[in-house]
DNA sequence: GGCAATCATCGAACCGGTTCGATTTTCGAG
DNA sequence: CTCGAAAATCGAACCGGTTCGATGATTGCC
């Protein structure tokens, strides 16, 4: 069922059918109706590959995700789904590609075979080889999180620095004098993962600015690590009365550790950070936190990508989101004494 | 940088380059080397759309996921990533399509535009309109979960019935006489969602076979509902000493309710069910449960799909997985008295 | 009624691969 | 040295769309 068949049955040429469907040249109303009737009757849909070949664009985005082996967090997951929906709004599809590990073949296929018009890269590092590969191919791309030189490329990011600063000041305002940052894994920090690095910097800086004693610890992305990490914090710095975290995956473990230690939140201990809203609400008690706006980031990323595809390599644009802290009930005034 | 350019620089015809790359006809070693040199120098990769058009296949699968609005569970998420990896093993890519809600345009684009060679459908209902649409297009597809007539189509599923049966017998062996099934949401059950329906049947049947008193309740897919649901169970049937569940999302709430009620697991109350292994291990204490093997299901689904694409509409094949129950520490003997 | 401008439609080229039949080259046997 | 078969390569058609320049049919105007 191809365009030639439709043309034959409608008694017109192939080009007329094409113009009737695209509207790129006027076609008489009578002819359009005849063509539409035939199409409806035969259930014709244009072949996407042929169209992509002729137009030189695929109407498809590539979305590069972390490999399955490293478990996706709730935020990341929500982001994937949101990207697909945002792309659908613009009649685009999304091709998934795991990367890292030994998935470079997949990355290659997606990136170099003109399979996609542009790429969205999740979880990038400050120095990311994939960014270099993309840059050298000339394929438009938008990163989630930014690379070392922010002006060099297109990106959408959460302003971890300013959010962590807000969390610290919030705790300082409540009277806390000894606080800790529960960061993501030591490997991530060492490999230059932007959010983790910037969170650390902002944490230490804003604590210093308020004269608060600050400690920071790395913690692997799973509940068991969260539990161990929190118990270590209690034994090393028993004076700590509040924690800030960007490690969602560790939260269940932290919660268990709090419970074991007999600490009530927020009476005995305050907890806040940058956390997906669903997770924050599922916590007991609900977490006061800066909610990561995954849906909006996805929308922005898709829009930036479309812009870049349309305008060519114009000046890079960015979006830095700093959602407000949502006050729930996991932070409270430090008990004096 | 197309095949014609490569041919010109290597001093051969386009077809020779094509044969050199595909190996479908013999090409002299000297020529192959010359072509490879040119390709390496110019960094050529064949255009995927052109190849798809000529070959009549895209080397791409469609993966239909639930819409983002309904939050994906951990199991589902792991499944998506695993499908992508399994497809990559066979040099295929994965195109994502949300469905349900008002995402039918996306489903349409993926399904009817010859964009994919086959489709994997997640979360299907016993009567699923999408299955009918796919059947009528003739596009190969594999469902995760099965439709009413199991012989009619290709699918991979977890044998919820037999797993739930095992859980019930396990509890009966430990001496429990009053047990409850915490099912998924009432809407899902009402809409004929296979796992929920079959879990209910198997639960009641196997309990009856062992002379155990059985209750079953539906519970929405979130922690708050889990908490409310468990408190309701305690007040309606205080004699219940063990629960079986297939509702992962409700687990945190169930855990909280157990804690509030001052019940120790497994001393005072036993808990088991069909749960993703990561979740089961994160629970406190780790859950004795039948682990849903998302990775293996993904691998099987991809293999069945490839088989179906290769063999055409041969006799439908299926895979019904019944992973063993992993004994952890959330079930124990009923205290006599 | 003739002429130009406008509208609708057509035919052919093109996108970049694959594939088939035909042609040229190579090589061994007689 | 010749002939025929096998090996290597070529040229053209094809996949199913889009797009451009050209052609034929209407229409308005003088």
Keyword list:
homodimer; 337 residues; 14 helices; DNA-binding
| Helix proportion range of chain A | 40-55%
Class from helix and strand fractions of chain A? alpha/beta
- From the spread of the alpha carbons, the general shape of chain A counts as elongated
Q: Poorly predicted ranges of chain A (pLDDT <50, ≥5 residues)?
A: none
User: Could you tell me how far the N terminus lies from the C terminus of chain A, measured between alpha carbons in angstroms?
Assistant: 80 Å
Question: What topology, given as strand order, has the largest sheet of chain A?
Answer: 2-1-3-4-5-11
**Mean pLDDT value of chain A:** 91
Largest interface: A-B, 51 and 51 residues
Percentage of β-strand residues of chain A: 15-25%
Description:
The structure is a homodimer of 337-residue chains. With 337 residues, chain A is α/β, with parallel strands linked by helices. Chain A has helices at 3-10, 14-22, 29-42, 48-55, 74-89, 104-112, 129-137, 160-173, 186-190, 194-209, 223-236, 251-260, 277-282, 294-311; strands spanning 60-65, 93-98, 118-121, 141-144, 154-158, 178-182, 213-217, 242-245, 270-275, 288-291, 318-321, 325-326. In chain A, the strands form two sheets. A six-stranded parallel sheet of chain A has the order 2-1-3-4-5-11, with helices on both faces. In chain A, strand 3 (118-121), helix 7 (129-137) and strand 4 (141-144) form a beta-alpha-beta unit. The first copy, chain A, is elongated, with a radius of gyration of 25 Å. The N and C termini of chain A lie far apart (80 Å). The mean pLDDT of chain A is 91. At the A-B interface, helix 4, strand 1, helix 5, strand 2 and helix 6 of A face helix 4, strand 1, helix 5, strand 2 and helix 6 of B.
């Amino acid at each position: 069922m191809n365009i030639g068949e439709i043309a034959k049955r409608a008694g017109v040429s192939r080009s007329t059918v094409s113009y009737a469907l695209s509207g790129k040249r006027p076609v008489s109303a009578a002819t359009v109706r005849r063509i539409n009737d035939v199409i409806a009757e035969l259930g014709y849909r244009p072949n996407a590959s042929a169209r992509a070949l002729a137009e030189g664009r695929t109407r498809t985005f590539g979305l590069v995700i972390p490999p399955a082996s490293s478990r996706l967090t709730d935020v990341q997951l929500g982001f994937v789904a949101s990207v697909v929906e945002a792309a659908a709004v613009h009649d685009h599809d999304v091709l998934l590609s795991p990367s890292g590990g030994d998935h470079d073949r997949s990355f290659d296929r997606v990136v170099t075979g003109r399979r996609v018009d542009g790429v969205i890269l999740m979880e990038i590092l400050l120095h990311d080889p994939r960014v270099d590969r993309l840059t050298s191919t000339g394929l438009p791309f938008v990163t989630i999180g930014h690379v070392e030189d922010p002006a060099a490329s297109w990106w959408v990011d959460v302003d971890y620095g300013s959010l962590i600063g807000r969390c610290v000041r919030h705790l300082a305002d409540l009277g806390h004098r000894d606080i800790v940052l529960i960061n993501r894994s030591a490997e991530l920090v060492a490999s230059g993962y932007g959010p983790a690095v910037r969170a650390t910097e902002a944490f230490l800086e804003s604590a210093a600015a308020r004269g608060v004693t600050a400690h920071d610890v790395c913690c692997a992305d799973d509940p068991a690590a969260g539990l161990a990490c929190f118990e270590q914090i209690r034994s090393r710095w028993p004076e700590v009365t509040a924690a800030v975290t960007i490690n969602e995956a560790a939260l269940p473990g932290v919660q268990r550790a709090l419970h074991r230690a007999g600490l009530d939140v927020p009476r005995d201990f305050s907890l806040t950070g940058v956390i997906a809203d669903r997770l924050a609400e599922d916590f007991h008690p609900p977490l006061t936190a800066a909610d990561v706006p995954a849906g909006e980031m996805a929308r922005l990323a898709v829009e930036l990508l479309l812009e870049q595809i349309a305008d060519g390599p114009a000046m890079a644009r960015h979006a830095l989101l700093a959602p407000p802290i949502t006050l729930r009930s996991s932070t409270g005034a430090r008990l004096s004494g």
